[in-house]
Amino acid sequence: MQNYLTPNFSFAPMIPERALGSRVWDAEGREYIDLSGGIAVNALGHCHPDLVAALAEQSQKLWHISNIYTTKSAQELAQKLVEHTFADKVFFCNSGAEANEAALKLARKYGRDHFGGHKTEIISCLNSFHGRTLFTVSVGGQPKYSKDYAPLPQGITHVPFNDIAALEAAINENTCAVIIEPIQGESGILPATQEYLQAARRLCDEHGALLILDEVQTGMGHTGKLFAYEHYGITPDIISSAKALGGGFPIGAILTTDKIAPTFGPGTHGSTFGGNPMACAVGSRAFDIINAPETLAHVEKQGQKFQTTLRGLGEKTGVFKEVRGMGLLIGCVLADQYQGRASEITAAALKHGLMVLVAGADVVRFAPSLLLNDEDMAEGLKRLEAALTEWLV
């Protein structure tokens, strides 16, 4: 097939044609088990009938009306997010990058408004990933994504992840925000320690800084709770959400409190498509399914089962030296002799009818549907073992 798109993506050698649940079929009719979840987006699998119905229903009513008006679907989704989290207010946008951009802008403006023009500095973690806008790619701690776009926004400091002493040394009266992923996703599915996030909360309180948790990848059930911060015994000031929030339909959001939300007064920030009726209608239906106790319990149960099997596969083949993560957001760290070859494994898996991900060069990543059943899990792992066996030859 002729490619008419810019060459910033390296497409896989198959064209997906249709999908249902955790199964995908390409243009030639070949079946794949999808354990990638559209990079943690398809939280309820492909074409969930309730989401299809919500989209069809809303499509007959109202597609777009602009943010001159609010809509029933936007208010319904925002209410659900508020009632089941720490938050009082929600801002809707279209992606994780936009959500983090909004969170960072809100934090800077809050710092200036309440403390003065000096309070603008942002602390982030090395190897973090917060999006692809110029601001978020600068805050992300991976120079490979930002070095070609200098000059970059200033006032950003990067510290080692899970290093309390480094965070203590970096934070000061000029810090307006600390932004952390509860689980570093793109750099290897590396969970924050409870001590680290609790220390971050304490230090932000001591220095008048806001704690932003980037839950774009960890949010909406992937860890076995609605949001990952619930595992850590802390309350953030702002969280960003996207990916699974719309179950596959593009939407992003930030959640914050009544103390901070007024900083975004009329005209201070916006989004043409943010909170559009289509996205919010689908997101609201997805929320109900994801937040159901039986769904979250299923994630925890299937996650434990999945990780146990992956550890056994690592011992059997010698390919994985560690399996880590929470719930159904899982990373398999390659053994030392296979470092740097994660992309080879994803390619081998695809040949065996299995869709998986990388998280950096050394980690194979899984982010399947939260509704993953035993049959699809078993078949996916069977295909993974076959792929690894062939790859090792």
From TrEMBL:
CC cofactor note: Binds 1 pyridoxal phosphate per subunit.
Subcellular location field: Cytoplasm
Enzyme class: transferase
Keyword Cytoplasm included in the entry's annotation: yes
Amino acids binding pyridoxal 5'-phosphate: G96, A97, F129, D214, E215, V216, Q217, T272
Record flagged with keyword S-adenosyl-L-methionine: no
GO molecular function, one term: identical protein binding
Coiled coil: none
PROSITE patterns the UniProt entry points to: AA_TRANSFER_CLASS_3
CDD domains hit by this protein: OAT_like
Pathway(s) this gene product operates in, as recorded in its UniProt entry: Amino-acid biosynthesis; L-arginine biosynthesis; N(2)-acetyl-L-ornithine from L-glutamate: step 4/4; Amine and polyamine biosynthesis; ectoine biosynthesis; L-ectoine from L-aspartate 4-semialdehyde: step 1/3
Binding site for N(2)-acetyl-L-ornithine: R132, S271
GO biological process: L-arginine biosynthetic process
Catalytic activity: N(2)-acetyl-L-ornithine + 2-oxoglutarate = N-acetyl-L-glutamate 5-semialdehyde + L-glutamate
InterPro entries recorded: Ac/SucOrn_transaminase_bac (IPR017652), AcOrn/SuccOrn_fam (IPR004636), Aminotrans_3 (IPR005814), Aminotrans_3_PPA_site (IPR049704), Class-III_PLP-dep_AT (IPR050103), PyrdxlP-dep_Trfase (IPR015424), PyrdxlP-dep_Trfase_major (IPR015421), PyrdxlP-dep_Trfase_small (IPR015422)
Swiss-Prot/TrEMBL cofactor(s): pyridoxal 5'-phosphate
GO cellular component, one term: cytoplasm
Residues with PTM N6-(pyridoxal phosphate)lysine: K243
UniProt EC number: 2.6.1.11
Keywords associated with the record: Amino-acid biosynthesis, Aminotransferase, Arginine biosynthesis, Cytoplasm, Pyridoxal phosphate, Transferase
Assembly description: Homodimer.
Note: May also have succinyldiaminopimelate aminotransferase activity, thus carrying out the corresponding step in lysine biosynthesis.
Family (UniProt): Belongs to the class-III pyridoxal-phosphate-dependent aminotransferase family. ArgD subfamily.
UniProt-recorded name of the protein: Acetylornithine aminotransferase
Organism: Neisseria sicca VK64
UniProt gene name: aruC
